[in-house]
Specification:
Blueprint (H helix, E strand, L loop, with lengths): L2 H8 L2 H7 L15 H11 L2 E3 L3 E3 L7 H4 L5 H9 L3 E13 L2 E6 L2 E6 L6 E10 L1 H7 L8 H13 L3 E3 L13
Antiparallel strand pairs: 1-2, 3-6, 4-5, 5-7
Length: 177
Amino acid sequence: MNLLSWIKQIFSDQAGNQLGIRRKESKSLDFIFEQDDINCFKHLCQFVWIQGEPIPLIFDLSNHVYANQKITLPMIERLVAIGLVDYAPEGYVKKKLGKHTRFFYHGRLTKIGFAQDAGNQLDLGVVLLTSSGKKLYATLSPIRNQQFYEYVIQHWFQKGLLLSSPLGSPQRPHLVN
């Protein structure tokens, strides 16, 4: 079964109910994933970091790191319409963080340190995956984007966060990506 067929199946009423997925319905009550929708979602997934759950870090859609990969507001709006992401132009924030937190990008750990011992928050950008988007993300193997990784590290550094990433060694090769 190809990916498009699988997605159509999980969003059908019967399969969707078993998986806890609800589909977005158009005015005509017809719902169709186009291959372009799947390709857009795959492109978006290269911007996902993991912190307990997949989180796309989309800070500024006008930045070339996103524009070069065709991540645009109309594309995000399409993914909202089909129920894979939520969009908030004011952005999302992770609150109540302790002194340190950890994020992973393609298995590479980045430790983030805050100035305060507690009550910290971290900007997550303007897009979050819905539960359906998270389930679909789990089936994909997104590409790694080194330019984006460096952009996020620079973004956090400019916010005054303390950052560290352990480097792999022959004894711990799993830390190298």
